[in-house]
């Protein structure tokens, strides 16, 4: 697809990403480092554009999920960065991973053994990281296996462990008792590992974890969503700047001639005399269909914005908004609908779609024209 075959305009504010990085960094105690999670193509916004901006903002610790994401990132950034693979290394890919200078997060003793066996030179393995499960029960070494690993001193001494990580399950609910339980378990794991590997760094907090306070920060924090404008402290005013603006051009403006239903399934009715704006952009572009009948947009009339409701089901390529509230002059000047901007945030769309801002971001389609500021 060439640039002028794309429709709809997705604007991504890289200055806002840099400002969000600076804000998160300012929350840390002295000596704490702020990393950045740029997995899944920087949550759909484009790692090739976002990562260099974060580098210039001072970030040196980058986290991705897959090896190819890490390899692409390494080609893009100066050599003084650390790139950590959050979902580790596939069996058989250890050497390639080490040669690319990528740091895999290992979660079993067997993985540590293979890493040492496959990547060691002069008795020391290539740098790696270890993840322990502190209570989320997702990726991470369980308590029993971790205790047993601590006994394998020779293995640990040659493993070149740079970092110990864990992940919080409930950081976006500050009052949830699991946060403190996970913090205490992680603290104990870090102390125990430092008996054997004194220089290992520790990392626990994602975006919301940063908002839980300094105790949760350890050496390196790993914010993702907050860099891209998602509110890391739900229930409080969002300290992050909005990063995305999504504009959908008008395809047809129509006056409804008699009371009738709109769209597939005839799920919603509008009265005779209503005005509807049909715009380019549907669920194939990441406008989740679950927001049908609950979503909002803002009519774009020059520099003026008027909030208008979605009507009927989101289709694959088009969506319908009720613009009856506009005056005839405003209607005449209507060019399209913004569905993401500083008022209509990814969090708000996530609410309307029964999901979270993260999924709105990672669903953003490839058919839009993308502009980076
Ligand atoms: C995705 C991810 C993060 C970033 O989380 P946010 O909530 O987006 O800040 C941090 N750590 C791990 C292990 C992750 O998988």
UniProtKB/TrEMBL annotation:
Catalyzes the interconversion of L-alanine and D-alanine. May also act on other amino acids. Its cofactor is pyridoxal 5'-phosphate. Pathway: Amino-acid biosynthesis; D-alanine biosynthesis; D-alanine from L-alanine: step 1/1. It is an enzyme of class 5 (isomerase). Belongs to the alanine racemase family. Its EC number is 5.1.1.1. Pfam families: Ala_racemase_C, Ala_racemase_N. It catalyses: L-alanine = D-alanine. The modification N6-(pyridoxal phosphate)lysine is found at residue 39. The active site is at residues 39, 264. Keywords: Isomerase, Pyridoxal phosphate. Substrate binds at residues 138, 316. This is Alanine racemase. GO terms for molecular function: alanine racemase activity. Residues 243-373 form the Alanine racemase C-terminal domain.
């Amino acid at each position: 697809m060439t640039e002028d075959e794309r429709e709809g305009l997705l604007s991504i504010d890289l200055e806002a990403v840099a400002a969000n990085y600076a804000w998160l960094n300012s929350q840390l105690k002295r000596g704490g480092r702020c990393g950045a999670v740029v997995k899944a193509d920087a949550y759909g916004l484009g790692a090739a554009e976002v990562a260099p901006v974060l580098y210039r903002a001072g970030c040196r610790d980058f986290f991705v999920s897959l090896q190819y994401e890490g390899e692409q990132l390494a080609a893009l950034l100066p050599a003084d960065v650390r790139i950590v693979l959050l979902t580790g290394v596939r069996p058989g890919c250890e050497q390639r991973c080490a040669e690319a200078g990528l740091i895999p997060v290992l979660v079993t003793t067997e993985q540590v053994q293979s890493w040492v066996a496959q990547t060691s030179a002069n008795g020391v393995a290539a740098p790696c990281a270890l993840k322990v499960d502190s209570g989320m029960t997702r990726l991470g070494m369980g308590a029993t296996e971790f205790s047993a690993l601590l006994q394998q001193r020779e293995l640990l001494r040659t493993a070149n462990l740079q970092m110990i990580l864990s992940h919080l399950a409930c950081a976006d609910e500050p009052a949830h008792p699991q946060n403190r339980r996970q913090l205490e378990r992680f603290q104990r794991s870090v102390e125990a590992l430092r008996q054997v590997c004194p220089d290992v760094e520790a990392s626990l907090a994602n975006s919301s974890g940063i908002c839980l306070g300094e105790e949760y920060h350890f050496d390196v924090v790993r914010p993702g969503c907050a860099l891209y404008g998602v509110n890391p402290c739900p229930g409080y005013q969002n300290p992050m700047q909005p990063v995305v603006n999504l504009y959908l051009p008008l395809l047809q403006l129509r006056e409804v001639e008699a009371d009738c239903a709109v769209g597939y399934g005839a799920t919603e009715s509008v009265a005779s005399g209503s005005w509807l704006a049909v715009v380019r952009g549907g669920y194939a572009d990441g406008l989740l269909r679950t927001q049908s009948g609950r979503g909002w947009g803002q009519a774009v009339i020059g520099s003026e914005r008027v909030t208008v409701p979605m009507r009927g089901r989101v289709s694959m390529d088009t969506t319908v908004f009720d613009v009856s509230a506009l005056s005839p002059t405003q209607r005449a000047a209507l060019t399209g609908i913004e569905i993401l901007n500083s008022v209509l945030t990814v969090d708000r769309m996530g609410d309307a779609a029964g999901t979270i801002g993260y999924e709105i971001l990672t669903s953003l389609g490839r058919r839009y024209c993308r502009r980076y500021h």
